[in-house]
Amino acid sequence: MSSNLPTVAWIGLGIMGSPMSENLVKAGYQVTGYTLEQDKVDRLVAAGGRGAASIADAVRDADVVITMVPASPQVEAIAYGPDGILENARRGALLIDMSSITPQTSVDLAKNAKDKGIRVLDAPVSGGEAGAIEAVLSIMAGGEQTDFDAAQPLLQVLGRTIVLCGPHGSGQTVKAANQLIVAVNIQACAEAVVFLEKSGVDLAAALDVLNGGLAGSTVLTRKKDNFLERDFAPGFRIDLHHKDMGIVTDAARNVGAALPVGGVVAQLVASLRAQGDGGLDHSALLRSVERLSGSQV
Questions:
Q1: Residue 297: what pLDDT?
Q2: What is the reported pTM?
Q3: Contact at 8 Å (CB) between 262 and 245?
Q4: Rounded to whole angstroms, how far apart are CA atoms 279 and 271?
Q5: What is the enzyme's main class (predicted)?
């Protein structure tokens, strides 16, 4: 079944990487995975993939290398150096970085990879853990049209909305805008929840009717139960959204775009993290509003 499909090396098997790599295995791809935690490599093997003892082992024979790690420093750590992807992947391989990092990191990676004969796409995603499991992610890509076309069959296994947004770094710029919208949206929902509860309204009923009108959103659909049940087990951690708000505020400053509301929400995310909630889901912005409103958290 998989004989004519490209072989895949997957680096980074976290909350997003594990289900995404497993979806490729289910689709018939031969996937060799590497990550720092052995139990996560074992999970991929149990799902029908292969495990590797190092990045070099994982990428050596791969047609496509996919990376999904937390931030720019981790991308640089796995890409560069004698044990990294660029030194060990074969010429002509396609490197798809699905991490959310600074646009400049993606531009630099593509430039350095080109010297090694390795093609690069930045292809960050939106949709969170649920979107990864259900293979309905939104994938925003940056790079060459020919490389995007080559990656399409594989990306279609992972997501539903897959768009080339422009040259290298463009995917990351769009992802930064995505994270801005999501954070502001969660904050608005959190404020509404506290307002509704303090007013004595049936919260579940209120959120249902709000979600059926103009105030409805994917954020509210996905996070409604988190708000109702105060369940903040991470689908997307505050720590990572804090990193992303830093990316978007910095990038906006560089291009001269004002983010007045985004700047405030970035500080609220930072505040939540400073209060020890960095490991919680970003819907925990509700906790920040509750604290500000004098509620017991």
A1: 86
A2: 0.93
A3: yes
A4: 13
A5: oxidoreductase
